[in-house]
């Protein structure tokens, strides 16, 4: 018997771009960039303090809006 030649597929490659150079980041990356929890970020999104973009099923946050938010003063607590 001859061995069966089976080629294995590799998963698609993902570009490793630093978050600071991306235009959009995931909610987890956005929370890390702001040094807050993901739940805190979700409160900011729900209260329309941070805009989001949807691509497919993913919720992404524009880095420019994260920087704008980080430059401001926010003495109030992050709660719903």
TrEMBL record:
It comes from Terriglobus roseus. InterPro entries: DNA-bd_dom_put_sf (IPR009061), HTH_17 (IPR041657). Residues 28-72 form the Helix-turn-helix domain. It comes from the Bacteria. This is DNA binding domain-containing protein, excisionase family. Pfam families: HTH_17 (PF12728).
